[in-house]
Amino acid sequence: MSGTVDPTVINLIVFVLAIFVGYHVIWNVTPALHTPLMSLTNAISSVIIVGAILAAGASALDLGSTMGVIAVALASVNVAGGFLVTQRMLQMFKKKQPKGEKREA
Predict the structure, then answer these.
(1) Domain range annotation of the chain
(2) pTM exceeds cut of 0.85
C-alpha cells in the first residue's frame, strides 16, 4: 500500500466543499448586496463560457467536446437569466412615478 489518495476522491471532496461554502456564502449575503453578487456571478459564468467553448472546439467529437457544448448552453442560460434578474432588482430601487404624472423621455 503506497498511501496515496485517488485524485477522483480529492476532486470529489473539493467539489462537495465548494457546494457547502457556496451555499453558505450566498444565503448569508445581506439583501443590499444581492445585485452586485449577481453581477459577479455573471462575470464568473462568462469565464466558464470561454473555457467551455475551448472544450467544445476540439477537433474530435468525444465526451469532452460534448460536455463543452452542454456547458456553453447552460452557462449562456445562466448569464442571460442573471442579467434579467439583475435588471429586475435594479428596477426596485428606482423612484416610482405618481399615477397622474406623465413620464418625460
Answers:
(1) 34-94
(2) no
